[in-house]
Write a structure and sequence with these properties.
Helix content: 25-40%
CATH class of the largest domain: Alpha Beta
Order of helices and strands: EHEEEEHEHHHHHEHEEHEEHEEEHEHEE
CATH topology of the largest domain: Adenylosuccinate Synthetase, Chain A, domain 1
Strand order of the largest sheet: 6-5-2-7-1-8-12-16-17
Largest sheet: 9 strands, mixed
Number of helices: 12
Number of strands: 17
CATH architecture of the largest domain: 3-Layer(aba) Sandwich
Low-confidence stretches: none
Shape: globular
Radius of gyration: 22 Å
Strand content: 15-25%
Oligomer: single chain
């Protein structure tokens, strides 16, 4: 039995989808345990190119069973769309995808309120995806949530009526239009009818799998520094993102997590508001254009910066990372020099990530070290020795600073474009 957690060591968008897809061939179960459809994973393999938000990225491995734990909040329309997309592509998810009835549902009022709250905050907006994630998690912890299990009785209707009384007052007060009970009820009854065949209590599956030495691959949503407690609060997501969340979100005891793969992008990106110490502000610079990316979920252009080793080192310590997977090393090809943040200073004194809050992190001075770049195209490299010497130096520098070995190196977006050391 082994349980491997795949986490992002930055602010998300590190390439976890590709990594999970790559590792899933050796997994019996692949599972999502946190977040919702505010996290998008891009997977490129023999089936095509997919941007998926709820179904685990390991679903493409034929012998793998995919689980969506109770710690994940579900937008039913998105999940139905993904199931239909995957089945149409020949992936075949029926009988291989199971959703916990404990999972909470994103309701129409959650998305409406998400947008209204952001607009009301004005310049203080936190840059949410407006997918309803914050409001649904707020309902979950304030006893106002609606779960799949509520559909098995009359609880759904009564809870929905109560919530619409409450939520419509807030919506109309903020300038929105009230929702109609009948419309919401019928829509979600229709969703339930389509998704009921995929709904199953996961606890027996998980426990039996652990007892019979099955291999679990856990897929984190978002990244370490979007964690509600350890991230750059309030510019974070609404759920816990570190591996310990798998205990509550899936039912796996912490002691069973044997390996933690920290997915680290060769540079840094972030979507939305919040501090990004190494941010490159010159949008016309060649480096900015080289690093620029579009988020899979929101379609927004990601903010970009140089690699921040203080962030990676902190993530490795916080989550007990055992191995690193360095992604998008190929993007650095063509740069003469590469800047890397090796530490922070504030008021002339050395500080760490743990020493400052989100606002302080926005004020730190980055201490940079310059590394020589390389001009070669590395996208066809199959081994570490085939990489240019300067690229090898860059990789070994990262594992030395993080105190964790780099076991995999991504040199392209495809599953096959991965070097295993």
């Amino acid at each position: 039995m082994s349980v491997t957690a795949v986490i992002g060591s930055q602010w998300g968008d590190e390439g976890k989808g590709k990594v999970v897809d790559y590792l899933a061939e050796r997994a019996d179960f692949v599972a999502r345990f946190n977040g919702g459809n505010n996290a998008g994973h891009t997977v490129i393999n023999g089936f095509g190119t997919f941007k998926i938000h709820l179904v685990p990225s390991g679903i493409f491995a034929r012998n793998t069973t995919a689980l969506i734990g109770g710690g994940v909040v579900i937008d039913p329309a998105v999940l139905i769309e993904e199931i239909e997309l995957l089945n149409k592509a020949g992936v075949g998810v029926d009988g291989r995808l199971w959703v916990s009835p404990r999972s909470h549902l994103i309701m129409p009022y959650h998305k409406i309120l998400d947008g209204l709250y952001e607009e009301a905050k004005g310049a203080g907006a936190t840059g949410t995806t407006r997918r309803g994630i914050g409001p649904v998690f707020a309902d979950k912890v304030s006893y106002n949530g609606i779960r799949w299990t509520d559909f098995a009785s009359e609880a759904f209707e009564s809870r929905l009526q109560m919530q619409l009384v409450l939520k419509n007052k807030i919506i109309t007060a903020l300038g929105g239009e009230a929702l109609k009970y009948e419309d919401v009820r019928e829509t979600y009854r229709g969703f339930y009818a389509k998704l009921k065949p995929y709904t199953k209590e996961l606890f027996p599956l998980v426990q039996d799998g652990l007892k019979t030495n099955k291999h679990f691959l856990l897929e984190q949503a978002m990244g370490t520094f979007l964690d509600t407690d350890w991230g750059t609060y309030p510019f974070v997501t609404a759920s816990t993102t570190i591996p310990s969340a798998a205990s509550a979100g899936l039912g796996i005891p912490p002691r069973y997590i044997t390996d933690v793969v920290g997915v680290t992008k060769a540079y840094t990106t972030r979507v939305g508001a919040g501090p990004l110490p190494t941010e490159i502000h010159d949008v016309e610079s060649d480096v900015y254009k080289k690093f620029a990316e579009v988020a899979a979920t929101t379609g927004r252009t990601r903010r970009v910066g140089w690699l921040d080793l203080e962030i990676v080192r902190t993530a490795a310590q916080l989550s007990g990372v055992t191995e690193l997977c360095l992604t998008k090393l190929d993007v650095l090809s063509g740069l003469n020099e590469i800047q890397v943040c090796v530490g922070y200073k504030m008021n002339g004194n050395a500080v760490t990530y743990a020493d400052v809050d989100a606002y302080g992190l926005g004020e730190v001075e980055c201490v940079y070290q310059t590394f020589k770049g390389w001009s070669e195209d590395i996208s066809k490299a199959k081994s570490f020795d085939e990489l240019p010497v300067n690229a090898q130096t860059y990789v070994t520098m990262i594992e030395g600073a993080a105190g964790v070995p780099v076991k995999w190196i991504g040199v392209g977006p495809e599953r096959a474009a991965t070097i295993r050391r």
